[in-house]
Design brief:
Two copies of one chain form a homodimer. With 138 residues, chain A is of the alpha+beta class. Chain A has four helices and six strands; from the N terminus they run H-H-E-H-H-E-E-E-E-E. Chain A is 32% helix and 25% strand. The first copy, chain A, is flat and about 45 Å long. The termini of chain A are far apart. Chains A and B meet through strand 6 of A and strand 6 of B. Strand 6 of chain A pairs antiparallel with strand 6 of chain B, so a sheet runs across the interface. Chain A binds a DNA duplex (30 and 30 nucleotides) through helix 4.
DNA sequence: AAACCTATTGAAAATAATTTTCATATATCA
DNA sequence: TGATATATGAAAATTATTTTCAATAGGTTT
């Protein structure tokens, strides 16, 4: 949270109770949350928090690389915190649950440039789809 | 296209000029296209085609596993055809261009079950972010 | 080929998510 | 504490997507 304070100061932004509430909601909530869910959770600490402010704060945190967007196929964008531990997702195609998996064999390629077309790789995202234990029949 | 005809028949759907136009637009267009783009392209062959029908056809093709959704962070969902050749994407963070990359070392894990939590992997998606050749300074 | 029946279509209306506007409130700094 | 520019909440506006419904047109049967 202190780190955030620094980040904001550097960029000329202000640290407000709204921003703290949204950030806390993101970090304490599920792996991925919709804007509505983040809003609900954050209102625990700050009941007067407006939905518009949640949208604005998420935009801010996205630029500050504190959160990441993820789209699961229903009409709404979800957000998750960018943690120190790089991870990917297991997405159950039956119940929709999202679980994180740590460990990644792609990290060594960060910074690499592909010979075929000169594309320089700076990051990646991997989503594994399938069925969680609870959703396997038989 | 004949394959599609079969697919539709099996499911009790009809093969209409609209559906053919949308499918053709998807296959002949860029790697990923927005609904609006698909609509514009398809109107070349069928000017009377309505946007609603494009949405409906994409939903149909999604269920028939002919197309896949992808979200690039602007507010709209994009679609791409599911081709026989499994591939992933190189997404330029500067200009937004999307290029396909073939070859995938994750395929052997399809069907595998993770020991840690019993999750059965059935498919995956990998997106590589970075800078395309044209967008690298220096 | 004509008739039938049901799936499909286009346009407009409705919805849902997200963004913009604007007057008010409040962090931050002198 | 006061000045000031940024941030906020509510409402309005916008944008993407879905639903409604009367009209159309596949595909099958005769």
């Amino acid at each position: 949270m202190d780190e955030l304070r620094q980040e904001l100061k550097i960029r000329g932004y202000r640290l407000t109770s709204q921003r703290e509430a949204v950030l806390r909601a993101i970090y304490e909530g599920a792996c991925t949350q919709s804007v509505e869910e983040i809003h609900e959770r954050a209102k625990q600490w700050l009941p007067s928090l407006g939905l518009t402010t949640v949208y604005r704060t998420l935009e801010l945190l996205k630029h500050a690389r504190k959160v990441q967007e993820i789209y699961l196929g229903d009409g709404k964008v979800r957000y998750e915190p960018i943690l120190e531990t790089h991870h990917h997702h297991l997405i159950c195609q039956v119940c929709g649950k999202v679980e994180p998996v740590e460990g990644c064999f792609l990290s060594p390629f960060e910074g690499a440039t592909l010979v075929r077309n000169g594309f320089q790789i700076l990051g990646h995202r991997l989503e594994l789809y399938g069925r969680c234990r609870d959703c396997q029949e038989g």
